[in-house]
Amino acid sequence: MQVTAGQCQKEVIMTHNDSKLLRPEEVSELLQIDVETLNTWRCNRRYSLPYIKVGRCVRYKASDVIAFIDERRIGQSP
């Protein structure tokens, strides 16, 4: 059985704490996209990835990020 990087990252979050708040840099690393892409998604409401504002800081719940990834899975998992 082959394990992908995404599965490893997801397991790290799940074992740590799925209610942990992640910085945009951490989310961009998990999704393998630029932080600026996340900023654009937030501003344009392109995707329904919930976020939390703490003052000027933006945070994402780990469980929301995992749900976002799972919702976009196409086909069946092995």
In helices, the fraction of residues equals 40-55%
Return the average pLDDT rounded to an integer: 83
Order of neighbouring strands in the sheet with most strands? 1-3-2
* Largest beta-sheet characterization: 3 strands, antiparallel
**Please, how many helices?**
4
What class would the helix/strand composition place it in?
alpha+beta
N-to-C SSE string, H for helix and E for strand: HEHHEEH
Assembly status: single chain
Shape: globular
Quote the beta fraction: 5-15%
In short:
The chain has helices at residues 5-16, 24-31, 35-44, 62-71; strands at residues 21-22, 52-54, 57-61. The chain is α+β, with helices and mostly antiparallel strands and 78 residues long.
List the helices and strands and how they pair.
Layout: H1 5-16, E1 21-22, H2 24-31, H3 35-44, E2 52-54, E3 57-61, H4 62-71
Antiparallel strand pairs: 1-3, 2-3
Describe the structure.
By secondary structure, the chain is an alpha+beta fold. It has helices spanning 5-16, 24-31, 35-44, 62-71, and strands at residues 21-22, 52-54, 57-61. The chain contains 4 helices and 3 strands, in the order H-E-H-H-E-E-H. Strand 2 (52-54) and strand 3 form a beta hairpin. It starts with a helix and ends in a 7-residue tail after the last helix. The mean pLDDT is 83.
